[in-house]
Amino acid sequence: MPIPAERRAAHHDRLTSLTSIPTATGHEHRVVQWIERWLVERPDLTAARDGIGNMTISMLDARSSKRPLLITAHLDHPAFHVEKVDGSSLELTFRGGVMDDYFQNARILVHHRDGSTTPARLIERTGEQEPFKRFNAEIESAAKASPAEFATWDLPKSEIDADGILHAPVCDDLAAAAAAFAAYDELRLARDAGEPVADVRLLFTLAEEVGFVGAIGACKLGTIPEDARLIALENSRAMPEAPIGAGPIVRVGDRLTIFSPALTKSIDLVCERIAGGKPPTASQKLDQAPSWKWQRKLMAGGACEATVFCAFGYEATCVCLPLGNYHNMANLDAVQGGQEGAKAEIDREFISIHDFDGLVDLLVGCGRELPDPGAMLERLDRLWDDRRFVLDTGEGRT
């Protein structure tokens, strides 16, 4: 059943709210507080934190003979950790991957423990000092009495424009988390209506932007059941062959590895089930494509937590949203390519609401049923049995 317009609107409101929350590696607590408020309104759910702070959410009465399905997203975003405050001067380290060009005289917003903010500007870089880049910044107004915790780029809050594009300080990965919440609410409604729903759980990890630290910890600490299947959610840099607006992306791999083929194929089958057909091949016209759109791509512009889960022996794959202004870097293609006159400017990330809605649909479909993809060898055997007759004439043999 299609999701009604009023519930779509509620999902979009949650999306704009969540992607406006300031977050940083090691400072994900404000997003966690948002999740805790979301949970209070849903007494049928239970949450658990592991030893490093990763959060797992599950349905209290979930019963299934099949393996649990974990939908995962990370809660941090590239940003600054405040190392020291001396009057109006700040010492910062940056946790995440952003090109050096984008830091020059950039405006930032310092977040204090009491929730207040102070504007500041980067003054200079003070050296590599691994593992993180270090900067000095100057506070532009009177410093708050409350201790400074972290700093983000100084950007407007989230909004959806008339063309259906979400512009947000943090799409990566809070837009994916918002899709997970939306899908979970839809699955709860289906379960309450007596419809079959699998044992679906949500896993929210910390410190992804500095090397998948939370995901690695979840594997090492036994946070994830041994027989679990995992769908890692991401926002991946859009490419010409993977454009914004063409639907959510079933990501077959990243720049490091290829994900679990059988689980990836199962998600493909869910896409076909929702769409009512397959994408057109080269022998078909484009107008024969289903109206519900999705993409299947490698997305080698970065890496994601599915690589971690696969490395630890789990069956895992990724579904992502194509993302503009990756890690808040506007004009990235031109700046990266050294194009003359290209300005390295910090701006909000952006995604398509059409793609977001498609991701929610896909996650709901996966939570209802993940079909058996079948063995490839069996499919090839059927092709052999059905079509080997074309070789029986002997013509063309030497």
Describe the structure.
Helices cover 27% and strands 26% of the residues. It is α+β, with helices and mostly antiparallel strands and 398 residues long. A hairpin with a 4-residue loop joins strand 6 and strand 7. The chain is globular. The protein starts with a helix and ends in an 11-residue tail after the last helix. The model has no long low-confidence stretch (mean pLDDT 94).
Tags for this entry?
single chain, 398 residues, alpha+beta, Thrombin, subunit H, 2 domains, 9 helices, 26% strand
Shape: globular
* Strand line-up of the largest beta sheet: 1-2-12-3-13-16-14-15
Distance between the termini: 57 Å
Q: Class by helix and strand content?
A: alpha+beta
CATH topology of the largest domain: Aminopeptidase
CATH class of the largest domain, anyone? Alpha Beta
The sequence of SSEs as H and E is HHEEEEEEEEEEEHEHEEHEHEEHEEHH
The number of helical elements comes to 9
User: Poorly predicted ranges (pLDDT <50, ≥5 residues)?
Assistant: none
Give the strand tally.
Answer: 19
What is the secondary structure topology, with strand pairs?
Blueprint: H1 5-18, H2 29-40, E1 45-49, E2 55-59, E3 69-74, E4 79-86, E5 89-95, E6 107-112, E7 117-125, E8 133-139, E9 148-153, E10 159-160, E11 165-168, H3 174-192, E12 200-205, H4 213-220, E13 229-237, E14 249-251, H5 261-275, E15 295-297, H6 305-311, E16 315-323, E17 329-330, H7 332-336, E18 345-346, E19 349-352, H8 353-368, H9 376-387
Parallel strand pairs: 3-12, 3-13, 13-16, 14-15
Antiparallel strand pairs: 1-2, 2-12, 4-5, 4-9, 5-8, 6-7, 6-9, 7-8, 10-11, 11-19, 14-16, 17-18
Helix pairs in contact: 1-3, 3-8, 5-8
